[in-house]
């Protein structure tokens, strides 16, 4: 692994694509999409498949297992989910906090950054109390 470089590819597929698949179909589609992405990376960056040290991917089913929702992007503010109903950073567990899109209605880098800043300022206020 000497001289290796971490590289992350983040892409999105329609949730509907995965909705009615059984476990075997999910695995098959995941492998198929992973192979397509690897082919594009190999072609674009002129590297060999043997240059890859580790490859893994996730599906909406993976997110559901770990974060109990099927997609990234946080909570969309809407009439049904107004911004004041979004969970705050604090949990009932000492030392465990929600950050990023789990506690901020934003997507992408800005949502992550603002969610983390919100936690930072909330912890500072709490420390002063």
Explain what the structure shows.
Helices cover 43% and strands 0% of the residues. It is mainly α. It folds into 2 domains: 16-67; 83-128. The chain is extended and about 55 Å long. The termini are far apart. The model has no long low-confidence stretch (mean pLDDT 82). Keywords: Membrane, Transmembrane, Transmembrane helix.
Helix proportion range: 40-55%
Measured by DSSP, the beta-strand proportion falls in under 5%
Mean pLDDT: 82
Task: Give the N-to-C terminal Cα separation.
Answer: 47 Å
The dominant shape is extended
**Would you identify the regions where 5 or more consecutive residues have pLDDT less than 50?**
none
How many DSSP H or I helices?
A: 4
* Order of H and E elements: HHHH
Computed over alpha carbons, the radius of gyration is 19 Å
Total count of domains: 2
Secondary-structure-based class equals mainly alpha
Instruction: Report the biggest beta sheet as strand number plus sense, adding barrel if it closes.
Output: none
Number of strands: 0
Task: Give me the secondary-structure topology.
Layout: H1 16-19, H2 23-45, H3 60-67, H4 108-128
């Amino acid at each position: 692994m000497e001289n290796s470089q971490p590289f992350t590819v983040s892409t999105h597929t329609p949730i509907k694509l995965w909705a009615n698949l059984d476990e075997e179909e999910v695995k098959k589609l995941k492998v198929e999409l992973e192979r397509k992405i690897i082919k594009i990376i190999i072609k674009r960056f002129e590297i060999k498949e043997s240059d890859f040290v580790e490859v893994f991917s996730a599906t909406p089913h993976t997110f559901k297992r770990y974060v109990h929702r099927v997609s990234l992007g946080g909570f969309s503010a809407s009439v049904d989910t107004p911004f004041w109903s979004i969970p705050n950073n604090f949990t009932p567990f000492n030392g465990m906090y929600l950050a990023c899109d789990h506690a901020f209605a934003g997507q992408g880098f800005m949502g992550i950054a603002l969610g983390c800043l919100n936690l930072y300022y909330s912890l500072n206020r709490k420390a002063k109390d």
